[in-house]
């Protein structure tokens, strides 16, 4: 764990007020640094971090953090920081062309998943995630990649030209309504500073036409060791890695007379500013009120932690109030949040954000402003503070129990904050002692004072994302709402009405029994049969310490219901979850569960009904109580039913503006027809067909027979602890022992060959391609694996042809798999966006790559890359309890043992080009085929 002023991501600890014995700390006492991480600086100025952990056994992750982003570009370089990021994968001193990708893909890495990078305004970060770490030559290769990224990019003219199209297509893919709105608002967010004109994606005219030397100059100026940190996290020997770093990176020269790495402060502004932004494709409004502040430089001392803790608790309580309000039908906003966070290197912001209901912008803004003023004027109740204390204490205890399970990415986030923002990586146990000291004197007045000082008169910015045709919030009205809230003498303190409620309330439970136990030695699991007929499959797993996961399923689902009832059965569990459980509303349920790490949910799909749950071991009884209540005391609240309908109607309003919704609605109509009884369009009739009585009765029907459910429980819990809980909370549920199956009501395509162009009016013209193949296919382990091979090899081919060679798309996504139920079918989907003027050129290439595979023209290295990835991914998955859950589920539900090599490893190793070719021919010849291309309406 680390200290951080970033309120939104910090997990804070608070101790018991009555019993915690805390040390006394002075404001200037330093926060202890986490000694597990090794940090150093090379003579050339490069910083390094090394963190050993076996959370993912036999793997390590390698990062290079460049203190360089788009803010450093000049007017002729806009977009080149991001362009340079792309070029890092297109040739370096020791890896020509696509050498980095080709080399690491042979180790099972996947581009975009294990090998990636990002560029922001102030930093550029490259990553190699979860690469095998026990082969010294592979470790050396990864370090050499970081070395080359630091100072040895090739930047050949040919590769630069090839990448221009890829980045143009990335811009096109990302240039949606929200991006266009941001471009309108950025000058107001940043008060016309350089940040407003340095979006990382850049200027496409520059991207398409810049001279080669301009990019090379940017690289020479800014990619240098004094602005770079490398971080290696994983199953490694710290001393050995440190020695390698010192030797390998020593040849990177110290810069002579380097350019100054400047930082931009957003200019001060006395008067408030306002901006309303509109876009034809926006379907929902948003209001933001921010106040910029000069960022306080971290001191790494107790006082920093004190301020952050107090702000975190105050904003947490305030946002709980807003979430509670949002669960009322009369509330004018859908959601709202208020917080304080980093904004840029030199500025922080207080920010109020609200998503109004349609035609309720002014009311929504006023309601949230009132809650803000209520909080800083009157503070917080004792109960609210106590619940916040309980919740954060539990979170920290959970964190301390799992210090050895911190993911690579979590460590890297700490490293980035340390290197870029000088926020130390704290010793979590010592930080806990400091926090207990803070809590000794915590009260409402302290919380009030801490947040009230953030509400200053200067640097105020109100922005509105409006919707065409609505009454959008005006500047005059916004300023008036703020003034009235600030001066509302009628405002009263918050009243906390929650007292003394418990999860089970007055419910009486008559325990059942475990009537038999059977050991499943093949997978080291146990099956318990309960007195009510329930089967519970259990496996101990402690890869994730102190965690327990539960899943229960029965067949039936929405398939058993008539078309006119599909809306009600489809939303029945949504209503139940919104309503709470037992004697508790959802608001009260959340309060009862504060401080407990336990949850449970229910869902109904087309074929099944499912109950899920997870918990920390200390709270497993709470999870089991929740599961029990989902069966015996589900709750259905008429007010929540009205709120659900209101939410659906709100989402329906302005839906015609949402281009993605239009595409999905159009695609569904083309593929399944406009009147398919089992594929209902989301429209007013769908909402009108909802029935509270049906939703309640359908839920009760689906969960009426616990004996028809099969339970799976996996985690760090012994049989001795689990068995009494099963008898009390699962065996006690009545089982009527009916035997149900699903109905095979699979909606059919309108034709076995669909070929349509759909023209849609777009603000940013592009084509979106949707291709699919569907065919009956036996569900076997080999066929399932072959489908994956086919999809992943096609992804490699399209990356090379459509993206790299043609520069025609940012990326083509391919999904291929076999659905076992209700009818075993192979399903292959290919999706990508591109320039509308190029789509007819790119489409034949899609089919050419498929035809090559059908002819057996499959690159041996593509098969080997895919094979290695599958074997590595399988081994990596064994580091987590979720593997054990999949193991017992597949053993009992799908009748195969994942641990038996013949069911996976042997098949993956044995797959040949001929196997893939024959499979491709068998599933693609005479398959149902769909090609739908969305094109801009001119």
Gist of the model:
This is Insulinase family protein. With 938 residues, the chain is an alpha+beta fold.
What does this structure look like?
One of its GO terms (biological process) is proteolysis. One of its GO terms (molecular function) is metal ion binding. Helix content is 41%, strand content 18%. It has a 7-stranded mixed beta sheet, with helices on both faces. A 6-stranded mixed beta sheet has the order 1-2-6-3-5-4, with helices on both faces. The chain has a 5-stranded mixed beta sheet with strand order 7-11-8-10-9, with helices on both faces. The longest helix is centred in the C-terminal third of the chain and has 25 residues. It starts with 37 loop residues before the first strand and ends with a strand.
The span between the termini is 54 Å
Could you give me the name of the CATH homologous superfamily of the largest domain?
Answer: Metalloenzyme, LuxS/M16 peptidase-like
Extended strand count: 23
Rounded mean pLDDT score: 95
């Amino acid at each position: 764990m680390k200290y951080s002023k970033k309120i939104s991501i910090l997990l804070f600890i608070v101790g018991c007020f009555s019993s915690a014995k805390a040390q006394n700390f002075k404001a200037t006492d330093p926060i202890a640094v986490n000694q597990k991480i090794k940090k150093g600086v090379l003579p050339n100025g490069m910083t390094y971090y090394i963190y050993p952990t076996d959370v993912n056994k036999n793997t390590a992750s390698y990062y290079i953090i460049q203190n360089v982003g788009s803010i450093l570009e000049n007017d002729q370089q806009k977009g080149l920081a991001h362009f340079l990021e792309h070029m890092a994968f297109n040739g370096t001193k020791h890896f020509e062309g696509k050498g980095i990708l080709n080399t690491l893909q042979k180790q099972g890495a996947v581009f975009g998943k294990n090998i990636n990078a990002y560029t922001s305004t102030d930093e550029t970060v490259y990553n190699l995630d979860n690469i095998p770490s026990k082969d010294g030559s592979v470790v050396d290769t990864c370090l050499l990649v970081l070395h080359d990224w630091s100072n040895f990019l090739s930047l050949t003219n040919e590769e630069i030209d090839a990448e221009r199209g890829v980045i143009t297509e990335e811009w096109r893919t990302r240039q949606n309504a929200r991006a266009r709105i941001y471009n309108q608002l950025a000058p107001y967010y940043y008060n016309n500073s350089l940040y407003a004109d340095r979006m990382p994606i850049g200027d496409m005219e520059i991207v398409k036409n810049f001279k080669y030397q301009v990019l090379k100059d940017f690289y020479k100026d800014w990619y240098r060791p004094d602005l770079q940190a490398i971080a290696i996290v994983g199953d490694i020997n710290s001393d050995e890695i440190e020695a390698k770093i010192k030797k390998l990176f020593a040849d990177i020269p110290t810069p002579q007379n380097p350019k100054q790495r400047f930082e931009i402060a957003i200019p001060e502004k006395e008067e408030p500013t306002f901006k309303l932004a509109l876009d034809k494709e926006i379907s929902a409004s948003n209001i933001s009120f921010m106040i910029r502040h000069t960022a306080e430089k971290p001191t790494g001392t107790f006082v920093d932690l004190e301020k952050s803790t107090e702000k975190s608790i105050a904003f947490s309580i305030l946002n709980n109030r807003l979430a509670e309000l949002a669960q009322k039908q009369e509330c004018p906003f859908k959601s709202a949040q208020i917080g304080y966070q980093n904004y840029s290197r030199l500025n922080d912001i207080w920010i109020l954000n609200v998503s109004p209901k349609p035609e309720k912008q002014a009311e929504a803004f006023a309601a949230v402003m009132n809650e803000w003023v209520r909080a800083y004027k009157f503070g917080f109740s004792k109960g609210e503070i106590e619940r916040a204390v309980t919740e954060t204490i539990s979170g920290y205890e959970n964190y301390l129990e799992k210090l050895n399970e911190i993911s690579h990415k979590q460590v890297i986030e700490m490293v980035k904050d340390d290197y870029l923002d000088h926020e130390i990586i704290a010793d979590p146990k010592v930080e806990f002692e400091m926090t207990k000291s803070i809590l000794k004197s915590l009260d409402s007045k302290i919380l009030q004072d801490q947040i009230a000082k953030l509400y200053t008169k200067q640097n105020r910015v109100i922005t509105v994302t409006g919707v065409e045709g609505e009454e959008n919030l005006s500047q005059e009205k916004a300023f008036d709402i703020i003034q009235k809230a600030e001066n509302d003498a009628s405002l009263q303190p918050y009243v906390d009405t929650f007292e003394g409620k418990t999860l089970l309330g007055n419910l009486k439970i008559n325990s059942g029994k475990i009537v038999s136990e059977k050991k499943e030695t093949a997978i080291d699991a146990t099956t318990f049969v309960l007195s009510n007929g329930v089967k519970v499959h259990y496996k101990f797993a402690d890869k994730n310490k102190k965690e327990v996961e539960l899943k229960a399923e029965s067949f039936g689902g929405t398939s058993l219901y008539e078309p006119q009832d599909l809306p009600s059965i489809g939303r029945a569990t949504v209503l139940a979850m919104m309503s709470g459980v037992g004697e508790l509303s959802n608001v009260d349920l959340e309060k009862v569960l504060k401080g407990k790490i336990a949850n449970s949910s229910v869902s109904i799909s087309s074929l099944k009904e499912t109950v899920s749950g997870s918990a920390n071991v200390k709270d497993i009884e709470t999870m089991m109580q929740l599961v029990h209540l989902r069966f015996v005391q589900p709750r259905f609240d008429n007010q929540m039913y009205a709120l659900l309908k209101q939410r659906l109607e709100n989402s329906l309003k302005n839906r015609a503006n949402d281009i993605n919704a239009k595409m999905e609605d159009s695609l569904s109509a083309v593929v399944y027809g406009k009147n398919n009884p089992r594929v209902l369009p989301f429209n007013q009739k769908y909402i009108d067909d909802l029935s509270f009585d049906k939703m309640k009765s359908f839920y009760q029907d689906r969960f009426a027979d616990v004996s028809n459910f099969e339970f799976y429980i996996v985690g760090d819990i012994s049989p001795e602890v689990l068995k009494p809980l099963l008898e009390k909370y699962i065996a006690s549920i009545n089982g009527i022992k009916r035997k149900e199956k699903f109905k095979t009501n699979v909606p059919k395509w309108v034709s076995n060959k669909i070929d349509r162009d759909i023209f849609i009016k777009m603000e940013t013209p592009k084509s979106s391609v949707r291709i699919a193949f569907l065919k009956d296919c036996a569900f076997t382990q080999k066929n399932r694996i072959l489908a994956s091979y086919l999809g992943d090899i096609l992804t490699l081919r399209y990356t090379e042809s459509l993206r790299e060679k043609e520069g025609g798309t940012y990326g083509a996504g391919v999904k291929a798999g076999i659905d076992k139920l209700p009818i075993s079918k192979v399903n292959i989907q290919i999706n990508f966006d591109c320039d509308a003027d190029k789509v007819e050129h790119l489409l034949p290439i899609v089919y050419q790559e498929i035809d090559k595979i059908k002819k057996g023209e499959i690159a041996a290295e593509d098969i080997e890359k895919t094979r290695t990835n599958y074997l590595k991914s399988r081994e990596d998955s064994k580091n987590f309890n979720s593997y054990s859950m999949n193991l017992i589920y597949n053993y009992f539900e799908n009748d195969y043992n994942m641990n038996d090599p013949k069911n996976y490893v042997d098949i993956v190793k044995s797959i040949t080009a001929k196997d893939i070719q024959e499979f491709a021919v068998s599933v693609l010849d005479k398959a149902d085929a769909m090609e739908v291309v969305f094109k801009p309406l001119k």
